[in-house]
Amino acid sequence: MATRARTRKPSRTAPDEGALERIAARRMPAAGDGRSLAEVACDEIRRAIREGRVPTGAHLTEMELAGWLGMSRTPVREAMRRLESEGLLLNQPFRGALVMRLDAEDMQQMFAVRELLEPAAAAACALRATGSEIAALREVLGREAEVLGNPAALIPLNRQFHDLILEAARNQFLKKAIAAVYSLIPLLGDSNLLDEPHARAAHLQHLAILEAIEARDDAGAELLARSHVSHSLECRLARIKGNELKSTLNPQS
Amino acid sequence: MATRARTRKPSRTAPDEGALERIAARRMPAAGDGRSLAEVACDEIRRAIREGRVPTGAHLTEMELAGWLGMSRTPVREAMRRLESEGLLLNQPFRGALVMRLDAEDMQQMFAVRELLEPAAAAACALRATGSEIAALREVLGREAEVLGNPAALIPLNRQFHDLILEAARNQFLKKAIAAVYSLIPLLGDSNLLDEPHARAAHLQHLAILEAIEARDDAGAELLARSHVSHSLECRLARIKGNELKSTLNPQS
DNA sequence: TCGTCGAGGATTGTATACAAGGTATACAAT
DNA sequence: ATTGTATACCTTGTATACAATCCTCGACGA
After folding, report:
1. What residues of B are in contact with residue A77 (Cβ under 8 Å)?
2. CA-to-CA distance for B223 and B215, rounded, in angstroms?
3. Could you give phi then psi for residue A238, rounded to 5 degrees?
4. Rounded distance, CA A38 to CA A25, Å?
5. What CATH number has the domain spanning A15-99?
6. Residue B59 dihedral angles phi and psi, to the nearest 5°
7. Structure letter (DSSP) for residue B30
8. Which part of chain B has CATH 1.10.10.10?
9. What residue spans in chain A does CATH classification 1.10.10.10 cover?
10. Which of A88, B78, B90, B197 could form a disulfide with B98 if both were Cys (CB 3.0 to 4.6 A apart)?
11. Which CATH homologous superfamily contains domain A104-249?
């Protein structure tokens, strides 16, 4: 790995002195693992937003991010444009970008569309999934059952479950439409799955959906998926209301 | 228009000598009309694809497009990335980009999703449209009635009708989801509206949908919109079949 | 005291130079 | 003849320099 640095002239301006080690670890177009710096930047920024390290509403500039990621403006710029087209950032003509912020109204709009698309995916999956795809779904749910109290493990599995269904639905446009909506979920804040009771309820709903899929009951899968989404919305709304109440009673908490 | 050139030092390397006039017409970040070169490039490439001047499946390189558009690789690159994320281009790691190609199967997938989303938009519009929005819809259909034989005027009006409905639906996520699908329509080839009989039928369907919206009959609008989409798919499929038949009988035509 | 105008700073938009990666082709060896 | 290898070229990826734009803040005049 050390052979990769090549130090193409150590550095001409010695940018930050702090992140130099990590700069050396990347440096060229496709750094070792085949990912371009722009992709790295994209994932990194996305993750920072998802983890709340960059709050919604924050103001970002290209130079700032470039300094933070230890790369030049070019790949950062590319990443920002991509995130903008995903809807995570709002680009302001000559003034940088804002991390998009969603309110409760936006959330309800989002879930209205999810209630449309996810049931359709579940129904299509019930009609078209292969045996091995169903086996994969079952396996994911098996692993899910074991980590219901561990959000860090649970959340990727949850995502995988939905992705597998979407894949089995065999419709690239459905995939695109759902992706356009899903990409903004990180802006909603903490997942429902952080609470174990919610996680447990969601898991049971997943099992029911899978059962319908295995039975090739597309109408049933559709109905169950719709109620799964609707339930998820209710949980989030309840949590918001709870937080508002708490902060009313206890403003600084 | 000539005031825009400003000639910020005529040019330093005199790039191509052939497209210089057009280069002078643009040149700065936001060329007069406030659009960046990247946006211009994006629209231009999109239009070239839509008009078939760049065939589906064609191979594009950054330099080639930069030369053609009279700008540097940077904004072209940005445009290509944007078009890639829209799904119009397929970026190949180090080998340029391909104009995406859709077959009949893809088209059916696309219309399956449109049959899901557009009726939802029509229903939401019926519930939420303001008086002035309905008036705007009516006016568009009025103009539409007058140009049924003129596709060049008809197609933008058709698009405007659908956009107005989507706007009145008041759901940014529905908008995003539909946009993700709509952006690939240019890849399907000629519009149905080129044929006057189809245009006339579509216009009547539009009128029926508007009537349901005015009556605040969301279920009716939903149903009518669904059959509108479904009819559109059937027309396209019939045309494909017709073309195949023709080319079987008359291979070189 | 308030409004308007101008200078300056900050940030993006664009062009270009350079380096790294991939592919294809030509050549040699089996 | 076929296959493996090396080299050259083409394209993209990245960095940086510079131009244009927008916002801010302060000075000046009414």
Report:
1. 78
2. 14
3. -60, -40
4. 15
5. 1.10.10.10
6. -105, 125
7. B
8. 2-99
9. 15-99
10. B90
11. GntR ligand-binding domain-like (1.20.120.530)
What is the number of helices (H) and of strands (E) in chain A?
10, 3
Question: Does B174 sit within 8 Å of A176, measured CB to CB?
Answer: no
Per the listing, tokens 């969301």 go with: B218
Chain A residues touching B179 at Cβ < 8 A? 180
Residue A128, pLDDT score: 97
DSSP track, B83-119: HHHHTSEEEETTTEEEE----HHHHHHHHHHHHHHHH
B2-99: CATH number: 1.10.10.10
- Chain B CB contacts of A116 under 8 Å are 116-117, 120
For residue A34, the tally of other CB atoms under 10 A from its CB is 9
Q: Where in chain B is the domain with CATH 1.20.120.530?
A: 104-249
d(CA B73, CA B62): 6
pLDDT of B2 over the 90 cut? no
Read off the pLDDT of residues B29-69 as tens digits, 9 standing for 90 and up. Answer: 444 456 889 999 999 999 999 999 999 989 999 999 999 99
Assigned token pair, A137: 């779904």
Beta strands in chain B (DSSP E): 59-60, 89-92, 96-99
- Rounded to whole angstroms, the Cα distance separating B205 from B211 reads 10
Three-state DSSP state, B67: helix
B75 touches strand C (CB under 7 A): yes
The identity of residue B194, as a single letter, is L
Spatial neighbors of A244 by CB under 8 A, at least 6 apart, are none
Q: Give the nucleotide at minimum CA-to-C1' distance from B59.
A: D11
- A18 has pLDDT over 60: no
Q: From the Cβ of A3, is strand C under 7 Å away?
A: no
CB A194 within 8 A of CB B191: no
Q: How far apart are CA B226 and CA B118, in angstroms?
A: 7
